[in-house]
Amino acid sequence: MEITEKMVEGVRVAYRECSGSYDLIPRYIAEVAEWVIGNGLQMTGRVYGTYYNSPEDVSEDDLVYEIGVSIAGEAEPSEKIKIKNLPAQRVLATLHEGPYTEVGPAIHSLIDYATENGYEIVGPITEVYLNSPLEVDESELLTEVQLPVKKPD
After folding, report:
1. pLDDT classification of 133: cutoffs 50, 70, 90
2. DSSP 3-state of 16
3. Cα separations (Å) of 3 from 20, 31, 87, 91?
4. Which of 51, 61, 72, 87 has CA atoms 20 to 30 A from the CA of 14?
5. DSSP characters for 89-144?
6. Quick one: average pLDDT of 115-131?
7. In this structure, are residues 24 and 67 in contact, taking their beta carbons and an 8 Å threshold?
8. Which run of H or E residues covers position 73?
9. Smallest Cα–Cα separation from 123: which of 92, 106, 148, 150?
10. pLDDT confidence bin for 153, thresholds 50/70/90
11. Among 49, 80, 83, which residue's Cα sits nearest to residue 66?
């Protein structure tokens, strides 16, 4: 598994704070996308999930994450859909090919690499979805897994 260090550019996003089962993620992605389109905004390519805890540590009901898409344009946030600017940041990244349910080893590899190489982890895991289960077979899904880090001195 290849791990790279890179800078991710800052981006404006529409997102939804979520909790509970990851099975709800496709519905949340559709909900955010529909809101974006319905408010005359343009999606600019990044569809992501940021995960604040792990099913390895908490029950399914206690999972906390956000699902969002990058946007261009202006709109007022709604009760469920919020807007923010994600800053540019340094990440360790790796590409996972296959079902979303099998991304765990990629996450562990990033964390292990960061620890072994003296990086400070400065934020939660983010998965950027590069294609869609509506377009390709589950075995061909591409997910870039990103771990925000601070370079070792």
Report:
1. confident
2. strand
3. 30, 32, 21, 10
4. 61
5. EEEEEEEEES-GGG-HHHHHHHHHHHHHTTPEE-S-EEEEE-S-TTTS-GGG-EEE
6. 97
7. no
8. none
9. 148
10. confident
11. 49
| Mean pLDDT value of segment 126-137 | 93
Which tokens sit at 150? 């601070």
Round to whole Å and give the CA distance between 4 and 39: 36
Buried/exposed 22-35: b ≥16 CB within 10 Å, e otherwise: beebeebbebbbeb
Q: How many residues does the chain have?
A: 153
Among 125, 117, 32, CA closest to 81: 32
Q: Match 């939804």 to its residue by tokens.
A: 16
pTM listed for this prediction = 0.94
Beta-ladder partners of 121:
149
Tokens of 48: 């992501």
N-terminal to C-terminal alpha carbon distance within the chain: 25
Handedness of CA 106, 52, 68, 33 (dihedral sign): positive
For 55-74, write each residue's pLDDT tens digit: 999 999 999 999 999 999 99
